[in-house]
Amino acid sequence: LLSGALLPVAFFVLLKFKMITDLSIGSSFSQTLFFVFGLFSIAVASLIMFNARNYKRLLAYSSIENAGIMALGFGFGGLGIFGAVLHMIYHSAVKVVMFFSAGNILLKYSTAKICNIKNALKVIPTTSVLFILGFLIVTGTPPFGIFFSKIYILGTGIKMYPLISFVAMFFMTMVFIGFLRHVTQMFLSRSSETQEPGEGNVWLVIPPIFFLLLIILLSFSIPPFLEHLIHEVVLYYSYD
Q: Is residue 239 predicted with pLDDT exceeding 60?
């Protein structure tokens, strides 16, 4: 649950470093670092995603990928920074949905191993739908918010750094395929063992439902005060 909050805090430190180096030696040094580590993070996540055995670690690998996407956005500058800040907000909210759902799965199956989770869509339908929707949101499936934040980031990147952008898109596609493979196995595969249907605790699905509704709302309508804050952040950190 803390991954949604800790990642923005970590980026705050990196952006402070970026501001200092930009004033001292120019923006090219920090920009290169953001590009290198951004692409590296997405690439590493795409490779280890396929071999994930633990669904909680799967979410951690997803955070690595999304950190890389944010790094590229801040590296591209301009609308890329706007997209990175949006991405940070959406990612923080959707990870709450997914980790709450993962906790409910753990309560029901008493295991965090992906291979031991079968037919979850029939056993715990509400939690399963929440996790699947979380997967679609966090991987940038339209019409959810992360899709638009990726458009801002990659749209800016394609104009200025097309090679970096296309390489990033390739690895993002690999992440989606790897994640989809595990989600299909957990929620759609049949099991020979009989598991009693029903959520472990009905009250435990309320928090992820709340955050899911929040993400859907923010995907289509950003409140004026939040939009103002995002624009202020863009102006503060932009080097253009």
A: no
User: Among 205, 215, 49, which residue's Cα sits nearest to residue 130?
Assistant: 205
Q: For residues 195 and 173, give the distance between their C-alpha atoms in angstroms, rounded to a whole number.
A: 34
Tokens (6 digits) for 175: 């992440």
Question: Rounded CA gap, 145 and 162, in Å?
Answer: 23
Cis amide prior to 143 (ω within 30 degrees): yes
Query: From CA 41, how far away is CA 11, in angstroms rounded?
Result: 14
State which amino acid sits at residue 98: M
Average pLDDT score over residue span 209-232: 91
Give the pLDDT score at 24.
85
Reading the block at residue 183, the tokens are 């989600």
- Is residue 131 within 8 A of residue 150, CB to CB? The reply is no
pTM for the full predicted model: 0.91
Domain boundaries, the chain: 3-237
Do the Cβ atoms of 127 and 199 come closer than 8 Å?
yes
Contact 82, 150 (CB under 8 A): no
Which residue shows structure tokens 């020979």? Answer: 192
Token pair belonging to 41? 């993070």
Could you give the CA distance from residue 215 to residue 87 in angstroms, rounded to a whole number?
Answer: 11
- How far apart are alpha carbons 219 and 217 in whole angstroms? 5
Least confident interval from 60-64, 78-82, 172-176, 197-201 = 197-201
Which string of DSSP letters, residue by residue, matches 149-175? HHHHHHHHHHHH-HHHHHHHHHHHHHH
